[in-house]
Specification:
The chain has 178 residues and is mainly alpha-helical. The protein has two domains: 48 residues; 108 residues, AhpD-like (Up-down Bundle), CATH 1.20.1290. It is built from nine helices and no strands. Helix 4 packs antiparallel against helix 5, helix 4 packs parallel to helix 7 and helix 7 runs antiparallel to helix 8. The protein is elongated. The two termini are 17 Å apart.
Length: 178
Amino acid sequence: MARISYIEEKDHPELAELIGKVRAGRRGALINVYKLLLHSPPLAAIWLDFVSTARFKTELDGRLREIVIVRVAVLNRTTYVFKQHVPQLSAPEGLTDAECNALADWRKASFFSPREQAALAYTDAMTRDIAVSDAVFAGLRPHFNERQIVELTVLIGLYNMHTRVFTALGIDPEAHHR
């Protein structure tokens, strides 16, 4: 159960413009993330812009983005992010439920390409160790250009922030998700 109240749209007409922007950017929904973040409208607005940019205005393909996001959710034990992405966002990007479940122990799975494995190793290092070894970083070079490495790094960092914020606030999974 969430540790702070959710902002309900009907109770806050002064937030109508921002809520409209959130709905437009999130498939028409006002999801729990924003119901919490709307306690600070400037943070809610920048969060929406940051997430939208990191997910949709990069050179990273959707499948890779979802692999990284789901892996961060698994590592940080954040059910909310996992349920937001699997399968609603991961399936349209070509990830099966089996692949998403295999992200819990991806090194033993045969689903992931060398490029995806390099990104997963980087995700693990950034999330678990914070400091990334030279060997793990060098593993990115054959698969990603410098722009893509920056974008991948920011995506991993962003979803580490997400998982920590959502866990601390006790965010509830959306009612319509499995």
